[in-house]
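Curious: can you check?
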Amino acid sequence: MNEALQIICGLILLVGVFILSRFVMGWKIKNACKFILKDLENREALDSVNAVELPYVQKKAFNVGLRDYRPKALEYLIQAGIVIVSSQGKYYLKAGWKEGLNIN
């Protein structure tokens, strides 16, 4: 195999690994979103009166073990308007949050 073909194969493999890592990260964030939604629903945090504090909100400076995708997933849910932050820093689900939600 000549050098040019080896370089091309290496680049194709590198791009493939990058794309695969993006899919895996997206899948993990999607599962973290499901976890957060179930957690808030189980705690009945459906309005500002019943808002709850979430222990996994803060990103840890020093994390031992696997990466925690829940803070990033929570950030996405807040940006999407599905999860609301109260003035006290507590979290709850927006009314009618299930309509139009496609996280299967």
User: Anything to note?
Assistant: The mean pLDDT is 88.
